[in-house]
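Consider the following assembly input.
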Amino acid sequence: MSLIVNRRDLDFMFYEALDLDKLLATERYSDYDREALDAMLTVCQTIAEDEFLPFAAKLDANEPQFVDGGVKTIPELKLAINAYKEAGLCTSGYDADIGGMQLPWMVDQALNGMFVCANNPVHTYLFLTQGVANMLNVCGSDALKETYLSKLVEGDWFGTMCLSETQAGSSLADVRTKAEPVGDGGYKISGTKMWISGGEQDLTENIVHMVLAKVPGGPAGVKGISLFLVPKVRVNGDGSLGESNNVVLAGLNHKMGNRGTTNTLLNFGEGGDCIGYLVGNENEGLSNMFHMMNEARISVGQAAVMSALGGYLYSLDYARNRPQGRHLAGKNPDAPQIMISEHADIKRMLMTQKAFIEGAQLLMFYSAQIIDELRSCTDDVEKRRMSLLLDLLTPICKSWPSEYCLEANKLAIQVLGGYGYTREYPVERLYRDNRLNHIHEGTWGIQGLDILGRKMQMHNGAAVAVLREEIQGTIDSAAGHSALAEHSAKLIGALTQMEETVQAVAACEDKSLALANATIFLDAAGHIVIAWMWLKQAVAASEGLQAGNVADRDFYEGKLAATKFFFRYELPKSKAALTLVADLDSTCYDLSGAQFTGV
Amino acid sequence: MSLIVNRRDLDFMFYEALDLDKLLATERYSDYDREALDAMLTVCQTIAEDEFLPFAAKLDANEPQFVDGGVKTIPELKLAINAYKEAGLCTSGYDADIGGMQLPWMVDQALNGMFVCANNPVHTYLFLTQGVANMLNVCGSDALKETYLSKLVEGDWFGTMCLSETQAGSSLADVRTKAEPVGDGGYKISGTKMWISGGEQDLTENIVHMVLAKVPGGPAGVKGISLFLVPKVRVNGDGSLGESNNVVLAGLNHKMGNRGTTNTLLNFGEGGDCIGYLVGNENEGLSNMFHMMNEARISVGQAAVMSALGGYLYSLDYARNRPQGRHLAGKNPDAPQIMISEHADIKRMLMTQKAFIEGAQLLMFYSAQIIDELRSCTDDVEKRRMSLLLDLLTPICKSWPSEYCLEANKLAIQVLGGYGYTREYPVERLYRDNRLNHIHEGTWGIQGLDILGRKMQMHNGAAVAVLREEIQGTIDSAAGHSALAEHSAKLIGALTQMEETVQAVAACEDKSLALANATIFLDAAGHIVIAWMWLKQAVAASEGLQAGNVADRDFYEGKLAATKFFFRYELPKSKAALTLVADLDSTCYDLSGAQFTGV
């Protein structure tokens, strides 16, 4: 059993629950067929298992060090990145016109997911670089692209996103980093950026920072933010590296997990001029930076799924091979111990992990499929529908796995008992890695405000209407399988309650009160969407069973059982939560600071 | 604001929500009055803040090392223990007849709780020693007590509990360590024990291990387990230390958290004879070891509450002093940022922590009060009632805080955002420390089987009947406060559903199926008991408000708000959970191993 992927499940999601075949039939993805993708996934699985997974614990225990103003990482990190690069995988996430593989993004997510599962801190450097390259490709000038793009695409240089400052995390309006024009199209960048992942490293000769800064005299708040490309080392006209651009490493943050990725405090313009180049127009920095935000947030969700998958597969393997205790009925101390996977509560913990992880995984792939469709589809009406749905699903993609796949990691520890609590086993590390995902790329609370305050209400609820249509489509396809009728009814009931909740919130004139329970709404909406994803899987599994594929019987039965689990054990939780939101419960909102402790 | 205790809340729980005054009026505790206890708490708070708290992060980052067959700890650890010892606190948990302070156990829990909150890994050595001394005092021979007891009580030697082996964690029936009589009342101990906290250290000259082992020829399973006292260093007739007793440190486990406490693999009888002394009778080892189990499990719950309290107080202080963002209504980027404690979702996360922690804390004190009453009460009928109730509450005391106070730690990280994810702040460490509590002293699943399979059903439901009587008493006292009527009705409704669920479970002939959802039942029963604890606090707060204590208005209003929060946001969750249990849902139970991944 692989500890980083369930290939049978990938096939199921791609070709049975979703419709990758349809995408592959489009012009855009005509270079690929199922056989080619299978071979590619196998290559990736091998590299991830052989070059990424083996040193994940070592990297965690030996995080990058601040040495002589720079960073020193363990040699395995560079070797792993070289293996990834030599397989050409740095180009997996780009279109052919800039030298990329032009894969369906759904496949790219699965392919990179194996590396994330094996050793997320290594992959983070690669993931960030892809975001920077795509941003540059969409918003940058030809001159900037000429100098920087292929270096990023090929993985010769890595990229970073520099948004936060010590006083401005979620509140980007308060960014203070300054960009003063110097006349030749360049800007002098000065300021300090905090939480910059990959901000310094010893893996690539140059680092390309994408920096949010304010040009003096611009509008206050987010409207005055511009985006700049700031290289660590200046690049000469011939493309060779020049002198230092005075981006100084001021310190490393020491994290709970994901320790192999440096996280830095950077001073721009310390000890000399730091030159940046405008990307897009002045004062449009936020929208340029956020151009790739749907993708970035889905990738965060995917990372959460992958860290959880690592814990699930490990704890499942452990439970199948660890003898302990006996069946409750007729305990006989002379009888041999049974495997713990036979204990009901261990089954519950494994099932919970399965239901959370595979439910979330399908949502990630479904959302990726929308992105692929948006890239290949020519029907403007359908594109608008799908685009609305994607916007609505994005905060759920970001948050639901960050909450429930983290819970899965917690259960993986519990399955291993005392062993799970030690660093000799990977499950606690995977929990620590995963705990990041609720924080970066927009915190949990930010996602709640986004979905309830914006996405659910935009264009008079147009996105919710698309959601209902799509869910109805799944319910229609479930109609032929009588065992699923119970689930369909519950799903429609929950969806209706969600819609009514949105209406109650929209009718409230006090917007602060209306959104006071937004995070709870996000949680409940996530449960409804994941229930939908399980119904999709149940339909596909029922069809698979009907097709009489005996070898897959256990696999399909497991999918149907997990669907039942999610609908019985999880979905009912959304009801009480939505009631609170619809009632505009103000219990927390009304609380004054002094009331917490009385002093 | 102290970061380890809310003294106002301690007072509230002791003297308003509970009845410490009544205990202090008994003969047993007549040495103490409120003033004396206040002074003692202040001394403890000072020592905990000055000697324990400051190096908690350093101890976490510099865990004990395996050096030359022994253990090396950082010097601060011994200094802290000396400060605790010099204040006479090692004797806090014992009766006067063995040199103890004979405090109400409720007060002892609060007093030691401050040290746990400040630096739990240090306190663990002390906590374990207390358990060993109490076990020896109750079950040991006069000769053993003569040699060992005062050394343990004074904290000159520390103690450990040696139950688990690599193949026998939850399943003690499979213990293999052997104890062969050597003729003079001693036994030759041979075997390997795993997960032994404090099994080796450089803090005391001797270590007293309490070891479960089997005398050859005894019954199979748990019925053949005996308890032995095994010193690390043999003790001469005059009480001086003799030669090594051949307890060899085979390795240290490297834990996710609680790193300052060594956790060891010990070989007994490696390289020479290891002599142990029987404690109690042969084959009665398990019941002797479990003699203090209620107390030990409540202490685990208390530790979970304390680790969470550390996170709560830190995140509350942070939120009150961290500017970020603006009110949703009328955002103006030129306006100064507000403190994040004013954001609704931050309030929700702080309130959730408060509700979980203070609810669980009252349950710990309430249970401790029962233990105190059992020690001072002379009415046999009442003693039996209270004893039943304590047995019923114990698995909840152990598990509910391990789940929900851990959740509180997770939220404390979230309140701090990126900062919370770094080791420069204490909140992630407190999470890691707390994650242990669901595992040791009986895992979560074990507690579930205990409460549903045993405690709820024992003596024809006699314990549940006592629970109902006690809850009814609280509801009666709430009757004078009309605002609480809504809560009382919900509580009775939930309790009734719980009782019906137990009946449905008891009626099921397939005991394995009946208990398949035991952990979920435990979770729901815990919510109902914690709701009761909040109703108790609401009654006391209402009375406090009526008494017109203006200075405390915020404090009392906060209690009422937290009660409302728990009844609205949390208690409703028990309904769906109990429905599953009563329905004997077999979704997880029916799952076969192959169905998880299909391969």
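Chain B is about 55% helix and 10% strand. Ask yourself how this observation constrains the way the partners meet.
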